[in-house]
Amino acid sequence: MKLISLFKPILNKIWAIRQTNPASQHVIIKLMILLDRVSKTYSRGSKPSLDRVSLHVEPKEFVIVVGQSGAGKTTLLKLLTREERQTSGKIIVGGIDYDKLKDREIPLLRRKIGVVFQDFKLLPNKTIFENVAYALEMVGMGNKEIRNTVPKVLDIVNLTGKEDRMPVELSGGERQRVAIARAIVRQPKILIADEPTGNLDPKHAWDVIKVLEKINRFGTTVLLTTHNQEIVNRLKRRVVTISDGKIVSDRANAGYKL
Amino acid sequence: MRRRLITFWRIIHTGMINFMRNISLAIAAMAIMVVTLTIVLFSIIINFTFAHTISQITGKINISVFLKDSTTQVQTNKLISELKALPNTETVQYLSKAQALKIYEQENASNQQLIQAVNETSNPLPATIIIKPINLNNIQSIKTFLSKPAVSQLQSDPPSYSGQEKEAIDRITHATNVLQEMGVAAVVIFAVVSVLIIFNTIQMAIFNRRDEIQIMRLLGASTWFIRGPFIVESIIYGMLSAVISVLIINASFQASAGTLQASSLGLLDIGYANSFFNQRFIELLLVELGLGIVIGAVSSLIATRRYLKFKTR
To answer: Predicted ipTM?
Structure first.
């Protein structure tokens, strides 16, 4: 599939980060997501929702972020999609330094990150096909190319044949898979999934997770937040645990533990 | 470039689809717009009709200066050029004795005896200068000039100010002036009120779809890709409303044509209003379209603003 210019391999760029900590070494790393002592305080004087969080995610990693409600998971993801701005610290995603991002560049950033939400966030007045196509329309892809691309992505999420349905006609699991199709149709290097299974029964939840794994196998970095213990245990991936705005554990191939 | 064209077309296309899908809201917004645009169009027509009535009345008014037979050609020419130089004269027309007689004969063609009587003597009518003032309410400068001794000694009789009609004409002019001003005021007030209502309606529509806007935002749609369709939708409201309002006025003229046929409703000359509407149809339609487009575009532009801000400060 021919990619349009927006998907230039910026994401593979190598950048240098001065590790001010310890002994100020110059280290060149190739990271997909870099958070360096990031804090977020919503209102002046209140307790920070994120407190000096540092996190490194390599390309093609599958990272699960767990933590209780209010621990700061959603804040973390909102910082990554630039729905919120960090109070302090440095965020670099796919080579883009968020401090240097202007308002009008935010849409361009978001086009490079696929996002899946707990409440699906499908456009209610558009068919399944149109919902997925919308992600391509906004970047100016031609109609012919869109007609070629969308069915392929719907096939990946096992929704072939439902193109002309409206979102309300689908089950929760199907809707979430539409949302995933929409998130991956632009072939982002990163997919952020914020409790994608939160509203689904176990069977549908697992369908969604399987799709995420499939996408990860294709080479997309996946950042998944979840409450679901069973999913965490079965996935056997890197698990980052957040509590009270701090990362309290970060283990590879871990199980669920709060 | 190609991508921009695709995007531009897509914005228009989406706007049109949204218009079809939100037809109930569209009807609400358009109803108000139609009322406004109809009032505006009606007021424009009335204003032009009044202006026409006034100019017709005042066009009949002139000042006649009657010259003594002894006035020489040189004196006459000098007087004419001096009159032309006055600031408030629109035209200055000279009638020789022979021409004055001819007009007199035409005016009294039914009264052969009178004409005979006039013709038996040598031509009794004076040569006449007819002055048409630009502004009827400001003929004082002309009066002053005519009463100067050097000028008045050339005159056989005091000048005639279109005779006895002046006072009646003054009153009519005054009345139409007041009506015209009221018309302008009404247009302004209605336009302001309706812009506010339309603005509110569109803002309600956008408020209903703020979640949708938020989703588009999160997916990385640019400001104009989100806002464009809303604006296109509102412009469609404006254009359709303009067409409908023109049709309403057209229909009302056709309905009234039968009953009021070319009669005057007081000072309002329906016949003229109708012919004005027919002659200037294209221009009026364009004015209405332009107004509808501007009202629609501006209100949706303002209404979408608040939902499209990034909250990253």
So the answer is: 0.79
